[in-house]
C-alpha cells in the first residue's frame, strides 16, 4: 500500500506538471495572439491614417487651386470652410502618425527607427504646405500673383509629400507583414512544444498509469472475491446476532414491562393504602373527635348558671366556647382535606369547586373552575388522583407563584380527560427549573398521573405564569398535549 501511494503521488505530480506546461503554453500563445491582433488593428489604422494623409493633401491642393484660379466661379466661403476642416484633420493625423498617439483608438504606438527617419524627411514638406495654406487662409488681401506663387509652392512640396507618404505606407505594410510572419513562427514553435509535451505525457504518465491501473484492478478483483467470502460469513454471523438481539430485546422489554407493572402495582397499592388511611382518619376525626367536640360545645352552651359567674370568668367562658367552635371547624377542615365527602358523594367537578372555594377563602385569590363534561362520574381512583393533583397544585401556587388568579379547567371528551391548572404568577426560570422539576410536590403529581396511565406537563415561562396540564386516557391511549405557544415546557 505504501508503494502504491508513493507511485500515485509521483504520477500525480507528473500529471500536474504536464498540465501546467500545456496550460502555460496555451495561455502564452493566446496572449501573443491577442497582442498581435491588437497590433494588427493598430497597423491597419496606421495604414488608414497614412492613406488619409495622401487623400487630404490632395484635397488641400484642390481647394487651394480653386481659391487661386477659379475664385469667381466658386463659393469662396464654402471652399474656405472645407479647406480649414481638411487642413485641421491633415495636421492632426500627421502628428498622431509621427508621435504614435492614436486618439481614435485610445492607444500608443511606437514607430520603428526607419519610419521615424521617414517622418523627419517628410517634415519640411509638411511644414511648407501647412504654413502656405494657413497664410492663404489668414491673409485675404493677397494679390493674384501672390496666390499663384503660394499655389506653386504648395504643389511643389505636395509631390514630395505624396512620394514620401507612399514610402511610409509601404514601410508600415512591410512591418505588419514581418509581425505576422514572426507570430506564425512563434505559433509553430508553441504547437511543436505542446505536441512534444503531450507525447512525453503519454509516455511518462499515461502508460505507467494504465499499467498501474491494470495491476490495481487485478488486486481489487482478488480483494473483492475475498471480501465477498468474508461478507457471507459475517452476514451469517450478523443474522444470528440479530436474532439473538431481538430475542434479548423482547425478553428485556417483557422484563421492563413486568417491572413497570410491578412498580405501578406497588405504587397503586401504596397510594390506595394512603387514601384508605386518609379516609379512616377522616372518618375517625368526623365521627369520633368531631362528635365529642360537638358534645362539648352543647354542654358548654347548656350551662345555665354562667350569668352568676364574675365578669372575668364569663369572658373566659366565652373564649372557651369560641375556642371549641374553632376546634370543631378546624377538625372538619382537616377531615375534609383528608377525604372530602363531596368527592365520593357527588364526583370530581363538585369536589374541585369545593376545594377552589376553600382555597379562595383562605388565600384571598380568585379561583375559577371551568368544566366541560365534568358531571360524568369516573373511577374512584381517577377522581381521587386528579383531586390530589389539584390540591397539590393549588398549595404550590398559593405558596410560591405570587399569583392573583388561578383557573382550573376540566374537559372530558369521549375517551380523553384533560385537567389544566393555570395561574398568572411569576413563572419558573431556567435557574429554578431543575429544583421545581425535581421537587417533591411535582414528583407526587407526576406519579399520580402515571398511576392513571396519564401524562403531566409543566408549561412555564418567567413572568408569564405557569400551566400544569394532565391528560388521562379513559379507554385508549391518547397523544400528549402540545405546549402552549410562547411557553417553555418542563416535563
Q: Which key features would you list for this structure?
A:
single chain, 491 residues, alpha+beta, six-stranded mixed beta sheet, two-stranded antiparallel ribbon, 10 helices, 8 strands, 75% helix, 9% strand, elongated, disordered C terminus
Structure description:
The protein is an alpha+beta fold. Helices cover 75% and strands 9% of the residues. It contains 10 helices and 8 strands. A hairpin with a 2-residue loop joins strand 4 (405-413) and strand 5. Helix 1 (2-69) packs antiparallel against helix 2, helix 4 packs across helix 5 and helix 7 runs parallel beside helix 8. The chain starts with a helix and ends with a strand.
The main β sheet shows up as: 6 strands, mixed
Helix content: over 70%
Weakly predicted, low-confidence segments: 476-491
Rg, alpha carbons: 58 Å
Strand content: 5-15%
Amino acid at each position: 500500500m505504501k508503494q502504491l501511494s508513493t507511485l500515485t503521488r509521483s504520477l500525480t505530480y507528473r500529471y500536474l506538471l504536464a498540465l501546467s506546461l500545456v496550460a502555460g503554453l496555451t495561455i502564452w500563445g493566446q496572449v501573443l495572439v491577442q497582442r498581435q491582433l491588437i497590433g494588427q488593428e493598430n497597423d491597419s489604422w496606421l495604414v488608414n491614417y497614412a492613406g488619409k494623409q495622401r487623400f487630404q493633401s490632395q484635397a488641400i491642393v484642390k481647394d487651394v487651386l480653386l481659391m487661386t484660379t477659379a475664385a469667381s466661379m466658386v463659393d469662396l466661403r464654402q471652399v474656405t470652410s472645407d479647406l480649414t476642416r481638411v487642413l485641421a484633420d491633415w495636421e492632426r493625423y500627421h502628428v498622431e502618425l509621427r508621435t504614435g498617439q492614436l486618439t481614435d483608438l485610445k492607444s500608443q504606438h511606437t514607430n520603428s527607427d526607419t519610419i521615424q527617419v521617414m517622418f523627419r524627411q517628410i517634415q519640411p514638406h509638411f511644414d511648407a504646405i501647412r504654413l502656405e495654406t494657413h497664410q492663404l487662409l489668414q491673409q485675404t488681401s493677397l494679390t493674384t500673383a501672390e496666390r499663384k506663387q503660394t499655389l506653386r509652392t504648395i504643389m511643389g512640396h505636395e509631390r514630395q509629400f505624396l512620394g514620401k507618404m507612399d514610402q511610409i505606407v509601404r514601410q508600415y505594410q512591410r512591418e505588419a507583414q514581418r509581425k505576422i510572419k514572426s507570430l506564425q513562427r512563434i505559433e509553430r514553435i508553441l504547437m511543436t512544444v505542446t505536441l512534444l509535451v503531450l507525447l512525453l505525457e503519454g509516455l511518462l504518465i499515461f502508460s505507467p498509469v494504465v499499467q498501474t491501473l491494470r495491476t490495481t484492478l487485478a488486486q481489487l478483483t482478488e480483494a473483492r472475491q475475498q471480501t465477498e467470502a468474508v461478507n457471507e460469513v459475517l452476514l451469517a454471523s450478523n443474522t444470528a446476532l440479530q436474532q439473538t438481539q431481538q430475542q434479548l430485546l423482547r425478553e428485556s422489554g417483557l422484563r421492563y414491562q413486568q417491572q413497570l407493572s410491578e412498580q405501578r402495582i406497588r405504587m397503586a397499592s401504596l397510594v390506595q393504602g394512603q387514601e384508605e388511611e386518609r379516609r379512616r382518619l377522616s372518618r375517625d376525626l368526623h365521627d369520633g373527635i368531631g362528635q365529642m367536640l360537638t358534645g362539648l360545645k352543647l354542654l358548654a352552651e347548656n350551662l345555665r348558671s354562667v350569668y352568676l359567674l364574675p365578669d372575668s370568668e364569663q369572658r373566659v367562658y366565652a373564649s372557651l366556647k369560641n375556642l371549641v367552635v374553632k376546634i370543631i371547624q378546624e377538625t372538619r377542615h382537616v377531615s375534609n382535606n383528608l377525604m372530602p365527602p363531596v368527592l365520593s358523594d357527588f364526583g370530581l367537578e363538585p369536589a374541585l369547586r369545593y376545594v377552589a372555594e376553600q382555597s379562595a377563602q383562605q388565600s384571598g385569590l380568585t379561583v375559577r373552575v371551568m368544566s366541560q363534561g365534568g358531571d360524568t362520574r369516573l373511577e374512584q381512583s381517577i377522581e381521587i388522583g386528579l383531586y390530589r393533583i389539584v390540591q397539590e397544585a393549588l398549595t404550590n401556587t398559593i405558596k410560591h407563584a405570587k399569583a392573583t388568579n388561578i383557573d382550573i379547567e376540566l374537559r372530558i371528551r369521549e375517551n380523553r380527560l384533560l385537567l389544566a391548572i393555570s395561574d398568572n404568577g411569576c413563572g419558573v426560570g431556567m435557574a429554578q427549573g431543575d429544583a421545581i422539576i425535581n421537587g417533591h410536590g411535582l414528583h407526587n403529581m407526576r406519579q399520580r398521573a402515571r398511576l392513571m396511565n396519564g401524562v403531566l406537563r409543566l408549561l412555564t415561562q418567567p413572568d408569564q405564569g405557569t400551566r400544569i396540564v394532565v391528560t388521562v386516557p379513559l379507554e385508549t391511549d391518547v397523544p400528549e398535549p402540545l405546549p402552549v405557544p410562547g411557553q417553555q415546557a418542563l416535563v
